[in-house]
Amino acid sequence: MKIHFLGIGGIGMSAQAIHEHFSGNVVTGTDPYSSERVNYLESLGIQVFKSHLPENIDSADLIVRTPAVSEDNVEVKKAKEKGIPVISRLEHHISILRPYTKIGVTGTDGKTTTTAMLAHVLLKLGKDPTVFLGSTHPMLEHGNYRKGSNIAVFEMDESQPGFENYNPDYLIITNIRGDHIENFKNLQHYNSCFENACKNVKICVLNVENNIINNSIKFGLNDGDYKINKIENNKFSQKITINTPYGEKSFILNVPGIHNALNALSIISLLFEMGYEKDLVLKAFSDFSLPKRRFDISFNENDIIIIDDYSHTPVEIKSLLSTAKNVFKDKKITIIFQPHRYSRLKREWKHFSEALSLADKIYITEVYGAFESKNGISARLIVEKINDAIFVQEKEELLQILPSEPGVYIFAGAGDIIEISKKFKEKVGGLKV
């Protein structure tokens, strides 16, 4: 079978394309944007077209498209003329997961870290999971994908209705905070999708702060069936003491942040309930490392520390800055934040202002639109509410105005702010990144 992916370079699409490639199918794709994932796909022998052209899909049996590719796309129109089926990334992902025992991870914040952490623990327990990750991690042979056997660990993207149709056997819901609410009829519809996602699962694990689903195992900070009692921090690691239905337990987590402690607790809740050996589960966290762009310390020289992070919601930004201030107690924290999506900014700009105010110095670029229209919205909204924050219209200007002085510089956002981080590392360290 020949499968053609539209938007093949996306982190989710590329993982699905790699899966099909190693399942014996002929895979091609189109993506106008160069990226590390596109380069990796080409290194595997997957042909990637750089422009959307009707002839790209001539011999395809199936077209898979990302939501960013519209019905007016020339390849979509050509496929429909020729009677070639066109399905969404979500539909394709659901279809390829059917043969597996499925462990899904969904929620507003923490999906990728929790998925990576769960895959890590299962590997340490001697299991052989197939993994689909929304970032890259060195433990996975192909960065964002690992071909395993009969267990699949994967993220369920909650940004669009339909994620409730994955029908996993086991499910972790990290939290439910109303991001992407504009894609749903209303809050009730949004919440009902999470409820429906849990309906047929064997075990549903839910953050206790979102107590909207009956018959779920609850985890949380100081509350829930599984709860955190105490955290002892040691800069980049933490000793966490928890209460469980099986008594008090403790474990070492090799990454900082209360949010990561909660991510680990959600996994413990699930695996304990699934019957895995408890001491082995707890021991497995001691050498976990975070995925790319999750508190990723990409430079540390001459008292200058650069962190790349994917945080793009107010809660994530607050957790990121709280963790940085706790880890680097004696250092000045500078955040360079690129808001992601105009719809999110319009809804959350006040909360962004509050969260970003935790930093000592704040630079804010214009919004990374992710194919959304501006509708008169600008990141200046955030800056107007924060004393001394600096708005940067064109992100490249940051290279002229960012000081090269000791401190911690956090480049945060889900867009292309990572490109400025790379150039800043070249500037302060003489590196070619």
UniProtKB/TrEMBL annotation:
Enzyme type, top EC level: ligase
Top-level taxon of origin: Bacteria
- Recorded GO terms, molecular function? ATP binding; UDP-N-acetylmuramate-L-alanine ligase activity
GO cellular component terms given for this protein: cytoplasm
Q: Supply the InterPro entries for this chain.
A: Mur-like_cat_sf (IPR036565), Mur_ligase_C (IPR004101), Mur_ligase_C_dom_sf (IPR036615), Mur_ligase_cen (IPR013221), Mur_ligase_N (IPR000713), MurCDEF_pg_biosynth (IPR050061), UDP-N-AcMur_Ala_ligase_MurC (IPR005758)
Might you name a Gene Ontology BP term for this protein? Answer: peptidoglycan biosynthetic process
Q: A Pfam family name for this chain?
A: Mur_ligase_M
Q: Per the record, what are the reactions this protein catalyses?
A: UDP-N-acetyl-alpha-D-muramate + L-alanine + ATP = UDP-N-acetyl-alpha-D-muramoyl-L-alanine + ADP + phosphate + H(+)
Q: Where is the Mur ligase N-terminal catalytic domain?
A: 2-92
- Give the UniProt subcellular location, in the record's own words: Cytoplasm
Key words, A-Z: ATP-binding, Cell cycle, Cell division, Cell shape, Cell wall biogenesis/degradation, Cytoplasm, Ligase, Nucleotide-binding, Peptidoglycan synthesis
Q: Which PANTHER family does UniProt cross-reference here? A: UDP-N-ACETYLMURAMATE--L-ALANINE LIGASE, UDP-N-ACETYLMURAMATE--L-ALANINE LIGASE-RELATED
What is this protein identified as?
A: UDP-N-acetylmuramate--L-alanine ligase
